[in-house]
Every structure is written in C-alpha cells, then in structure tokens.
Design brief:
The protein is α+β, with helices and mostly antiparallel strands. The protein has a domain of about 260 residues: Alpha/Beta hydrolase fold, catalytic domain (Rossmann fold, 3-Layer(aba) Sandwich), CATH 3.40.50. It contains 10 helices and 31 strands. The strands form 7 sheets. The protein has an 8-stranded mixed β-sheet with strand order 24-25-27-26-28-29-30-31, with helices on both faces. Strands 1-2-3-4 form a 4-stranded antiparallel β-sheet, with no helix packed on it. The longest helix is centred in the last third of the chain and has 19 residues.
C-alpha cells in the first residue's frame, strides 16, 4: 500500500484478529476502508476507489467478518449501503439510494430496516420496512427543526428507542412505534438539556442509561445494576470523568477510560467479579496533569438577555476570583451547530501554558441546549451569533479578568469565520486574530460545498441564508467583502485540499488585505484538508501562532 499524508478518521476491532480503519489521502476526506491484522500484517484496502468516500454504517459486532458501509461511487452526492465481507472484499448492495437518503440503520440481526431521508430540501423523513425483501415506506415526515432520531431497535426487533424533540423544546428518550411512526412513551427527558445518548446491555437485553451534557457529561440510569457499576467506578476514580469503552460478552470485565480537564486519562481493566482494577496504560504519560490548567464552567448574558454558557481556562494556579488583567484568546468553536464541552483540550492547554487565558463560548446555535436555542442562530451568521462572542469579551473585561488591550480571537472553520467577522465588525476590540480554515465569503462558500452536502442545500439556505434572496445580508456578513474595515494583525492558515472550506476562502481575504498594502501572515499546507493533521504541520502552525500571539499580546 502507498501511505502518504492522510487522516485516520476512525478505527475499530472487526473481529479478534482484524482491525479496520478509515483513511484518506492529503486531507481530501475521500476516506477508504482498510484492514490489517493485529500484528500489523496483511494490510489491505477494501474500498480504494478514486474520488469515492466510504462511510461506516454498522460494525455488525455479532457478525465477525462483515460490516455495513456506504459508498458514493454510483453518485457522488449520495451513499448506497453495502454489505462488505472484510476477508474476501466481496460487496453486496443492499439498496439503491434514490437521491435523498442521508442515513441507514440495521436491526440487531444485521438487517437493513430503516432509512432517514431529506425530502423537499428541508423535511426529514423516516422510512421503514419489516424485512429486507420489502420496499421502504415512509412512516414519519417532519420539518428538519423537529426530529425523531432512532437509536436502535428493541430486543424483539419490532419497535425502536429514539431521541425526539417532537412537540417539545428539548430532545427526550422515547420508545417509538416505527411501523406506524408514533411515539409510544417518554422514557426520560431533562428540562434544561437535550438527551441524546442511549445505551443497553447485550447480555441482559435491557436499556441501561441515557446521557446528556450540561457542562459535563451526565447520566440517567434505567437499570440498577448499571447504576451500581458506575457508583463503583466513580468511587474509584472520583476526580475524573469516565466512560466504558469495551466489555466482554459476559459483561463482567470492562475497559474503563478516565479523563479530566487536565488529563487525557488512562485505560483500566475492571474485573467486576473480583472487584479488581488493573491499569492498562496512560493515554499521554509524558504529560503531568499537575502542570496543566483548570477549565472552569461560566455563564454570561448576551445583549438580548440570552444566557450563553461557556468555559474559561486560566493559566496554572489561577481561578476566576484571582485572575486579573490577563492576555486572553477568545476561541469560538467550529460547526457552528456543534458545541464545546468540558475535558482535556491540548490546544487550549498549550495556550494556557504560554500564559493566555482562553474563553470558549457555546453561542446560540450550539447543540445540546434545545430547539429554541438552536433556531436563534438561523440566518444570524455574523449578526446575533457574533454578538454572543463579542458580549463574552466584554464580560471578561468587566470581570477584570481580561486586559482589554491584550485580547486575541482564534478559531477554525466557523470559528475562523467568526474570527474574520469579529475583526470586521469590532476592529478595535482585538489586538490580534488567527483564522484557521475559516469561511470568508458566504456566496463562494455556498458554491463550493462537497457534493454530498448538495441534498441538504435548501436546509442550509434556511439555516445560513440564501445567496439570492439574502444577498444584501450576505454582502454585509462576508468578511472578504468587507476587508477594508480590517485593521487587526491577522494570521491565516489553510489546507490546500480542504473540501469543505475551499482554499479560495482564505485567498480572498488575504488578497484583499494585500491590495491595501497590509502584510498578512499566510500559511498554506499542500498536503492538508480541513485542518492540519500531519504532526510536522501542526508543530509548524502552533509555533507560528505562539510567536504571532506573543508579538501582539505580550509586548
């Protein structure tokens, strides 16, 4: 096999001897599925096709030599499901995507029973069939703002467990009569957060817990045995968050992963019968968590009264009560329909180690806070969403934590867009800015999205805006078209092969500033895509960013 610069997007045990992983070339995100023996022998590419992306649909844990994958080889805009034999490489197409299916689901026997479609551009539809020899039929259609997200079938392969926000603001865990498209009962809901994770025991055939994220991950238990297990684990690792990453079929031996805001943690083997813990390995033994910075949950009010949750990381030894007049890096997350969460973030720790406080905020549109919080972001790129970030800066200044003359903004993807828009609309607020693979022109961004995003284009028009009907707004909120307002020192980093945020997005803003005679530090890596993944490139980027921030925030 030819191994060049690539992203390993995921990996897992296919059976007792074989490991499968997804890898692209040069950051193009056309992932192929590879297999290799646990001793590193017999490497084989199972889906290497030029310009084709492989997605994993189901690992089929109970069927050791098969997986279900999706391929867009027939049509680059859609993925057809295939049953793949990982030993022989033989593939069988299970259904032909008519052009609108965005997801496929199997039952516990490994049979393809459910499809999730986008219809009319903005409606989500669940399709179902009793057996694989039947045609799919629609059972529920909703606007994309509301959804029933199937998790898995019940243990008779009849009804389903799902996360749903139908008729409610926060997603709840429900039992769902999928054949008739009707909610049967609510199993658990939280008044403040979306509940989206659900877990079950394969051995005992019961659902065990649901999970949601406040500022940390939290669990609701359906099952006393599982609750007692976590009570025991929390007693052992009371200073850490934890999760179970694997177990044997008897469900009496567990692999436990710990982590915290200051540590990537370790893996342990827990022998439940003998109540014995055996440490397997530290994830990052070269890091001393006692030298790491703490991450504090915070909240502040935006100018319209909306409460914005977030995280404040302070250099070692400081607390929000003792931190005064610090140089600060504002770090809006990407997505934008994603969220920051509590845990170990190497990038944030790097900045804190260099003496910077770091503020991360879950601005409106961030996930996990309900439908209303999400919808407040629609068509608000560069407007209310940007105000949420700006108001976080003012909050830090008013708290006395930030030195108002030493504040930088840095973000990637949407966070890169927010960085550029921040130095357009508040040009004197920031002493420096770092844009990492960020959108700069909403018109050209919409024109260069990957082909497999095209079926969701109408949805993007509703969430981001339509370049025709919202053209006035797009002109006002596209940083590249307003670069004449930028006076903040700027560092831009971009992957040449980025399929999501085309390199032209960075070129536009850099060229516009250079035409004004402004020197912009611009780093382009030819073997990268949407973000830098090769170690040498990451080192180069962070060294350059540290030097850049120090120049403007520590003078």
């Amino acid at each position: 096999m030819k191994f060049i610069s690539a992203i390993i997007a995921g990996y897992f045990w296919a059976n007792e001897n074989r490991i499968l992983y997804l890898k692209d070339n040069g950051g193009d995100e056309n992932f192929a599925l590879y297999g290799v023996d646990k001793d590193g022998k017999n490497p084989k590419c199972l889906t290497c096709m030029e310009g084709v992306r492989t997605e994993l649909i189901d690992e089929l844990e109970e069927i050791p030599n098969e997986v279900i994958i999706g391929l867009n080889n027939r049509n680059p805009q859609v993925f057809d499901p295939y049953r793949l034999n990982i030993e022989t490489g033989e593939m069988e197409m299970l259904a032909e995507n008519p052009g609108n299916i965005q997801g496929w689901m199997m039952d516990h026997a490994g049979k393809l029973r459910v499809a999730i479609a986008i219809v009319d551009g903005v409606n989500t539809q669940i399709l179902y069939r009793d057996t694989e020899d039947q045609e799919f039929r629609p059972v529920l259609t909703t606007n994309f703002k509301e959804s029933v997200s199937p998790q898995f079938f019940d243990f008779e392969n009849k009804n389903m467990y799902a996360s749903s926000n139908l008729g409610r603001d926060k997603s709840a865990i429900i039992k769902f009569d999928i054949a008739n498209g009707k909610e049967m009962e609510v199993l658990y809901e939280n008044p403040d957060y979306d509940v989206e994770g659900l877990f079950y025991s394969k051995k005992r055939k019961v659902i065990t817990s649901a999970s949601y994220t406040s500022f940390k991950r939290e669990r609701h238990f359906f099952d006393k045995e599982t609750e007692q297990l976590f009570d025991r684990l929390n007693k052992e690792f009371n200073e850490y968050e934890l999760g179970i990453t694997g177990m044997n079929k008897a469900e009496d031996m567990f692999i436990v992963r710990t982590y915290s805001d200051r540590s990537l943690g370790a893996y342990y083997l827990y022998d439940k019968q003998n109540d014995k813990f055996t440490k397997i390995h530290d994830v990052s033994p070269w890091l001393d968590e006692n030298e790491m910075a703490r991450v504090f949950p915070i909240k502040y009010e935006a100018r319209d009264g909306l409460v914005i949750p977030g995280y404040l990381t302070l250099p070692k030894g400081l607390t929000p009560a003792t931190a005064k007049n610090l140089p600060v890096v504002i770090n809006p997350h990407g997505g934008p329909w994603a969220r920051d969460s509590w845990g170990f973030n190497p990038e944030i720790q790097f900045l804190a180690n260099r003496g910077f406080a770091v503020l991360q905020m879950n601005f409106r549109g961030s996930t996990g806070y309900g439908r209303s919080f999400m919808e407040k972001s629609f068509k608000k790129w560069g407007l209310d969403m940007q105000n949420d970030i700006t108001d976080g800066v003012y909050w830090l200044i008013n708290q006395g934590i930030a030195d108002k003359n030493k504040i930088a903004i840095y973000g990637g993807s949407y966070g890169g867009y927010a960085t550029l828009q921040g130095i357009v609309v508040t040009p004197t607020l920031y002493a420096a800015a770092v844009d990492y693979v960020g959108v700069s022109n909403l018109f050209t961004f919409m024109q260069t999205i990957p082909p497999y995003w095209k079926p969701m284009l109408d949805m993007m028009y509703e969430m981001v805006g339509n370049p025709v009907t919202d053209s006035i707004q797009f002109k006002a909120t596209s940083p590249a078209l307003n670069a004449h307002k930028i006076m903040t020192p700027l560092f831009v980093a971009q992957g040449a092969n980025d399929p999501r945020v085309n390199i032209n997005e960075s070129n536009q803003v850099v060229d516009a500033l250079k035409k004004r005679g402004i020197d912009v530090e611009y780093m382009v890596k030819d073997n990268e895509g949407h973000g830098f993944h090769n170690e040498e490139n990451r080192f180069d980027f962070y060294r350059s960013m540290e030097k850049f921030l120090s120049k403007y925030l520590k003078k």
